[in-house]
Amino acid sequence: MKRAATALAFVTLLACGAQAAESPTLKAVKARGELICGANGQLAGFGMPDPQGNWTGFDVDFCRAIAAAIFNDATKVKFVPLTATNRFTALQSGEVDVLARNTTWTMSRNTTLGIDFAAVNYYDGQGFMVHKDLKVSSALELNGAAVCVQQGTTTELNLADYFRSHNMTLKTVTFATVDEAAKAYDTGRCDAFTTDSSGLYGVRLQLNKPDDNIVLPEIISKEPLSPSVRQGDDMWENVVRWTHHAMLDAEEFGITKSNVDQQLKSANPEIRRLLGVEGQFGQSIGLTIDWAYRIIKLVGNYGEVFDRNVGQGSPLKIARGLNALWTKGGLQYGLPVR
Amino acid sequence: MIAIAKRSSGGARKAARIVFQAALVIVVAAVFYGAFVNAADHLARANISSGFRFWNNTAGFDISQTLIAYSSSTSTFGRAFWVGLLNTLLVAALGIVLATMLGFTIGIARLSRNWLVARLAGGYVGLIRNVPLLLQLLFWYNAVLKTLPELRQSLMLPGGGLLNNRGLFLPAPLFKPGFGGVVAALLVGLVASYVLHLWARHRQERTGAQPRTGWWMLGLICGLPLVAFALAGFPLSFSVPQLGRFNVAGGLEVLPEFAALLLALSVYTAAFIAEVVRAGILAVAPGQTEAAQALGLRGGLTLRLIVIPQAMRVIVPPLTSQYLNLIKNSSLAVAIGYPDLVQVFAGSVLNITGQAVEVIAITMAVYLVISLVTSLLMNLYGRTTALVER
User: Fold this and answer.
1) Any chain B CB within 8 A of the CB of A83?
2) CATH assignment of A22-123+225-328?
3) What predicted TM-score, i.e. pTM, was given to this entire model?
4) What is the distance between the alpha carbons of residues B329 and B256, in angstroms, rounded to a whole number?
């Protein structure tokens, strides 16, 4: 009798243990019925609501991909606009499930804030924009200039570093948001404006006379932009990480939003594993086995998302550059689903 | 239980009161301690670093207005804190002075017998009091920025200054070694003129004659330093601002953000101070004014010698509140990019270190200390104006 009871307890514990390996964040998201995503709200091409209130952008589409994987519905996302000052507090406190807000992956942020970065979805760098009539062709000529910058970002630090290492003096004018900094630059308060080079093109479009401003060629820093999650929830981190890699793998294998249904019948074992025809990889991260199929069908592969938001299919027309696939000379390397 | 304690003898009643108060203090302290331990535990579990080690780390960012030496490469976060604090104190102190001057003027003007002056002052108060300060601040900032000329079309001011939308650039004084003597002479002049003032008052009380001290005081305060200046061999030169390729080099810079914040704070608080002053003046019994007029004193003298000194008793406590409001409202500098304490410390430093709890706690403590010191000083002054009951 005693042995049977012990055996029963053991089996129950094992069963509970198997269930308890679920992520608390994923459980909360499923129970809530929507994903809460921390976004920018003011950056054209990355995260901005249009006049009708529909959110569009590169980071926005990433969150929609996660929602598609979980709910099979890319619209089940709530976007919370966050400033550079409160973005980490919002993530740490649990206000948002994932932070997809063009945030640079740095060591101090990774180790002291209690957050983990899932995957670099955009390799960026910091650049400068100046008024054309200043006749400046290189950032090295900016000695003594006044530069408008958003406060509390890696941009502020890199700016000081760059000018110091080249023995140039500068006058920093800091603002709480990119919008205010851009407006001040437009009125002539500063000679130059600096932010990540992907943001420069978006900001330039919103200035009074976009053609009176040029983007200087120098990229003065590495800005690997990566969505982030709270530490301590490994399965949720895997959900976010593998969403990105699924989109990269899809582009590498040539799977697009329009042809994904035909690709289900493909004989290529890599495609079959990715789309869930073979294997059960989705279950190991708490999702269904067609998690990658849902992402590609409802949102698209990495190339499509890049194109429509910041690439040739958008007003920004940013070249793939470092964000091209590794097979085309870029840095985006999809990890194998197997 | 309290009712029973009241009916019992004095000793037991007092003991019960002490016991209840001690119990309440213990409960409140336990709540605070529990909250603190809870927060520390959660932070540790979430792997968020805590503690004050960040104070000595290099800041790495630039600040546009620094009253003390600051460099982005070598200065620490602690240094950045002091820079921000000094900027806040500067704008708060100047704001208090300007707001008081303007507020007293408007308050007295509102009680003027001149219909137009009274209505204009009333209109000022009605408009400024009812528009949110943030909107007024943004208005002043955009008004200041938009009307000033661009860098290439800077206004040249007499004396070598430049005015454009980057700021007001004045020739910066460069003090040479002999300047200490000039400062000493100025202090001597101030003390001497105060002594002269006391002597004149004493003379008036004794004999009734009013000796004319105005020009003498002016001579002492201005003349002595000038003499010292000449004797020391003119130990002063100026760094004149020059238009560089991009910016203005040299000179003393007054940021447009500073000007906008100062204007907005002064104008806004002055409207409230005006009403406080008006209330104080109306609180003085009308018999005082009538008696003064019966003695032959004109309106201005009555106000200055009879009414205002008595009105100060009523004015000082609400005036203290307005000063505290001004100091705390200066944190709106975040909206226009003036590098005050909140913008530098609770903005840049908080975001770079990520330690929100410590940074916000320090910022709140600093504002608390500033406000307590201000109200302490005002209460000390208030005691000098209090009625002495015989």
Assistant:
1) no
2) 3.40.190.10
3) 0.80
4) 18
